[in-house]
Amino acid sequence: xxxxxxxxxxxxxxxxxxxxxxxxxxxxxxxxxxxxxxxxxxxxxxxxxxxxxxxxxxxxx
Length: 61
Prior knowledge:
It is a single chain. This protein is mostly beta strands. It has a single domain, classed as N-terminal domain of TfIIb, CATH 2.20.25. 0% of the residues lie in helices and 23% in strands. It contains no helices and 4 strands. It has a 4-stranded antiparallel beta sheet, with no helix packed on it. A hairpin with a 4-residue loop joins β2 and β3.
C-alpha cells in the first residue's frame, strides 16, 4: 500500500488482528489490511480536547 505505514502493535477495533493497521502518511486515515476497516481522521481517532487545562504544582526545595 503506497502512501501508508504500518503501526506496530496496533489492534484493529473491528476484527481484533494485531499489526494489521496502516496509517496514511499524512495521518488522515487508518485502515486494516485484514478486514478492510477504515476510519478517517475527523471521525474519531484525532479528537483532542482543546479546552483541557493542566495544573502544575511547583515545589521549591
